[in-house]
């Protein structure tokens, strides 16, 4: 492909979305949160420079953030240098009429082990802090603040809208009144 062809391919959804019928944002927020809460595993993509890693990982959703405990691993190479991440949550493909998936762009941060936020998430997960303290090395806690969620749900067509919808979140400074 030429550079021009790559750029045209990259613009495909932007151009198609500009003409599409949008779902009411409140209804979209509800459907997005229902889907997030109905699942617990995502693919977490991290990267820096020429290094890219995509890791399947369990998540929790609360307080407007994705939370992930991790022992460690290569994803931390990217996290050290680049806090921008992408999560993907999706169902098994079973035909165009049954699509359910989303890409979440966001900013990751590591929560200090045994800090108040760390302890509160451990309580949320029903993991005793004593058990976490007994581990040979601390369990890392990754928190992702979503900035944009692109959804592809076939169900949206039944509502008279485009099957692809985007939910935008306010910036970090405006995070008091987050989208979800």
Indicate the topology.
Layout: H1 3-18, H2 25-38, E1 41-48, E2 51-58, E3 60-62, E4 65-70, H3 75-81, E5 84-90, E6 100-111, H4 116-124, H5 129-133, E7 140-153, H6 155-158, E8 164-168
Antiparallel strand pairs: 1-2, 1-5, 3-4, 4-7, 5-6, 6-7, 7-8
Distance between the termini: 39 Å
H-E order: HHEEEEHEEHHEHE
List low-pLDDT spans: 174-178
Number of strands: 8
Tally of DSSP helical segments:
6
Q: What is the averaged pLDDT score?
A: 92
- Amount of beta strand: 35-45%
Helix percentage range:
25-40%
Give me the CATH superfamily.
Electron Transport, Fmn-binding Protein, Chain A
CATH architectural designation: Roll
Q: For the CA atoms, what is the radius of gyration?
A: 18 Å
> Into how many domains do the coordinates divide?
1
The fold-level CATH name is: Pnp Oxidase, Chain A
Give an overview in words:
The protein is 31% helix and 35% strand. The N and C termini lie far apart (39 Å). The chain is an alpha+beta fold and 180 residues long. A hairpin with a 2-residue loop joins strand 1 (41-48) and strand 2. The model is unreliable at 174-178 (pLDDT under 50). The chain has a single domain, classed as Pnp Oxidase, Chain A (Roll). The longest helix has 16 residues, at 3-18. Strands 1, 2, 3, 4, 5, 6, 7 and 8 form an eight-stranded antiparallel beta sheet that branches. The relative contact order is 0.18. It is built from six helices and eight strands, in the order H-H-E-E-E-E-H-E-E-H-H-E-H-E.
């Amino acid at each position: 492909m030429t550079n021009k062809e790559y750029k045209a391919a990259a613009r495909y959804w932007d151009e198609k979305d500009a003409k599409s019928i949008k779902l009411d944002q409140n209804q979209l927020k509800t459907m997005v949160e229902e889907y997030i809460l109905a699942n617990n595993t995502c693919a977490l993509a991290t990267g820096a420079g020429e290094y890219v890693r995509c890791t399947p990982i369990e998540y929790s959703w609360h307080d407007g953030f994705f939370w992930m405990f991790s022992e460690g691993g290569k994803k931390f190479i990217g996290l050290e240098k680049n806090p921008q991440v992408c999560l993907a949550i999706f169902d098994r493909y079973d035909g165009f009429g049954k699509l359910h998936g989303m890409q979440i762009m966001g900013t990751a941060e590591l929560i200090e082990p045994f800090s108040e936020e760390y302890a509160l998430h451990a309580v949320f997960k029903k993991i005793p802090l004593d058990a976490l303290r007994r581990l040979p090395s601390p369990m890392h806690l990754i928190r992702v603040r979503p900035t944009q969620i692109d959804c592809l749900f076939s169900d949206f067509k039944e509502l008279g809208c485009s099957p692809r919808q985007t939910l935008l979140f306010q910036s970090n400074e405006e995070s008091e009144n987050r989208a979800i």
